[in-house]
Structures are given as structure tokens and as C-alpha cells.
Specification:
289 residues; alpha+beta; 2 domains; 6-stranded mixed β-sheet; 4-stranded antiparallel β-sheet; 3 helices
């Protein structure tokens, strides 16, 4: 190869290298641009999503006016006001249920000629040795066979009449479980209804009972509060022996839901025109501020 041919060859190699380098630079630049654009779009989408998300909080609490009593004396009436307050940032629909806990202790059966009635003198049976302890503040310990210590040497044993987490079943006649017949719940006058005692047309701000729940009739706005469900709880003086030394507790439980039609499926409310709860809420849900 002559010197002239070598110069021509080197020149062609240089041109090819320069062209390849230029192509490479172009491709790299395009990749950087596409990558930056994708990153910006992704970041922008995230910002848009965050700004569009409804971050309002659904929250409600139970409010009670009640001095707790566990060892009830016959003839005792205690104020127990139960209501719900919307502490969130969006309107809500709320319902309440009431759970009862009761421990009745064993009585001596040979000191009373008529111990099977509520008018006898049967005293509580005393044990010197404890079993599993009943803790007054922990109803999960209120079970048959557990003992409640009066002092280090005197214990009462829970009988088979013990009830835990018993859902209160409301009716206008206040029909009670046999073990709980002496405890009477006084509901807010003119504010609690059921199928046997429905509200009159135009009645508002009331509680409607169905299948273990008291449903508040209205949409509860933020900071709003319901009327009281309960006024008081009392133990009849007719049952002095039956509840001698007994422990009793009434616990309120609450559910809150937003104004969407999932309410009906979430709370197992039949979606038909004959169900009172459905009719009460049907036109009140899916509201928007």
C-alpha cells in the first residue's frame, strides 16, 4: 500500500469512528431525555394523587356519664347516659350495641328452707382457697368456677349462672334473659323505637333497634352528638338473694360508617323497601359536602 493509500484509509477510519461516536452520543442523549421525562411524569403523578386523595378522617367516640358500680345492691339506680360524638372530619352514620356481663356467686343451700326463691336468706358460700381469680376490671375472668377474693382467706365462687358478653336484646316490654331479669335499663324517653313500637311520621333524632343494634336515625355531622340512648340502670329490690354479692357490668360498643352504599353490605342490612333500617338510611347516604 502506497503512502497515499494509507492516508486515504486512515481518513475513512476516522470518518467512521466520528460517525459512530456521534450516533452513540445521540442515542445516549435520547435515553437521558426519555429517562428524565419518565421520572418527571412519575413524580408529577404522585403529587397529583396525593393532592386528590380524600384525607378526611372518619372518627367517632362513645361518651358516657356513669360512676361504675360492680357489686350492686338491690334497689340501686345509677345514672348511665350513653351517646355518640363525631370527632372526625366527615359525616357519619353510627350504631350502638350493649354488652352485659354478670357473675352470680354460689349460695349455701342448707341455711334456707326456701333457697330456690328470691325471698330466702341464702348466704354466699365461702371458700378458703382460691381458684383462678376474678378481676373486677377484666370481664374475661368472669367465668364459672373462678373465685372472687374478699380478703386473703375469704373467696366466693362463680356459679353456672355467669354470663359474659351477652348482647342486650331490646323490646318495648323490656323482656330479659332469666339470669338478668333483675337489672332494668331505662332508655331515653321518646327516643328509642323498634318494630313493635315504630316512630311516628316526622320523628327525628331517635334510635331504632334491630337485631342487637341501636341505629341512630340521622347523619351525624362533624362535631355533632346524638341524644342519649340510655338514662339509667337499676337493680330491682325484689331480687335481694338472687344477686347477693353479684358483679354486673354494662359495656357500650359503637360502629361508625361513611355515607356510601357499602353501609348496607358491611352492616348486613337488607336492601329492600320493607326493612326499616334501609328505609331510614336509603336517601341519606351518598351525600356530598
Amino acid at each position: 500500500m502506497t503512502q497515499k493509500e494509507r492516508r486515504q484509509h486512515l481518513f475513512r477510519v476516522f470518518l467512521k469512528s466520528k460517525l459512530l461516536f456521534a450516533c452513540f452520543s445521540l442515542v445516549l442523549s435520547l435515553l437521558l431525555i426519555v429517562g428524565s421525562t419518565y421520572a418527571w411524569i412519575t413524580s408529577a403523578d404522585e403529587r397529583v394523587n396525593r393532592s386528590d386523595v380524600n384525607e378526611r378522617r372518619l372518627s367517632a367516640i362513645i361518651e358516657e356519664d356513669f360512676n361504675r358500680v360492680y357489686r350492686w345492691a338491690p334497689g340501686t339506680t345509677k345514672e348511665k347516659n350513653v351517646r355518640v360524638r363525631n370527632t372526625g372530619e366527615m359525616p357519619a352514620i353510627v350504631r350502638l350495641s350493649l354488652k352485659e356481663f354478670l357473675v352470680i356467686f354460689e349460695t349455701v343451700t342448707n341455711d334456707n328452707h326456701d333457697h330456690t326463691t328470691r325471698n330466702g336468706n341464702g348466704n354466699l358460700k365461702v371458700y378458703g382457697q382460691p381458684t383462678t381469680s376474678i378481676k373486677v376490671e377484666d370481664p374475661s375472668t368472669w367465668v364459672s368456677g373462678n373465685t372472687y377474693g374478699i380478703n386473703g382467706s375469704t373467696f366466693y365462687k362463680a356459679s353456672n349462672s355467669t354470663l359474659t358478653n351477652q348482647t342486650y336484646q331490646y323490646d318495648a316490654l323490656n323482656t330479659r334473659n332469666a339470669a338478668l331479669v333483675g337489672f332494668e335499663l331505662e332508655f331515653m324517653a321518646g327516643k328509642v323505637f323498634d318494630a313493635t313500637n315504630p316512630p311516628l311520621a316526622g320523628t327525628t333524632e331517635y334510635w331504632y333497634y334491630e337485631n342487637g343494634y341501636f341505629y341512630y336515625s340521622e347523619v351525624l355531622p362533624p362535631k355533632g352528638v346524638t341524644p342519649n340512648l340510655l338514662d339509667s340502670v337499676s337493680l330491682s329490690d325484689e331480687y335481694a338473694n338472687q344477686y347477693k354479692g353479684a358483679l354486673y357490668k354494662l359495656v357500650s360498643e359503637m360502629d361508625a360508617h361513611d355515607l356510601t352504599r357499602e353501609l348496607f353490605s358491611d352492616w348486613s342490612i337488607p336492601e329492600n323497601g320493607t326493612n326499616a333500617i334501609f328505609k331510614m338510611y336509603d336517601k341519606k347516604i351518598d351525600q356530598r359536602d
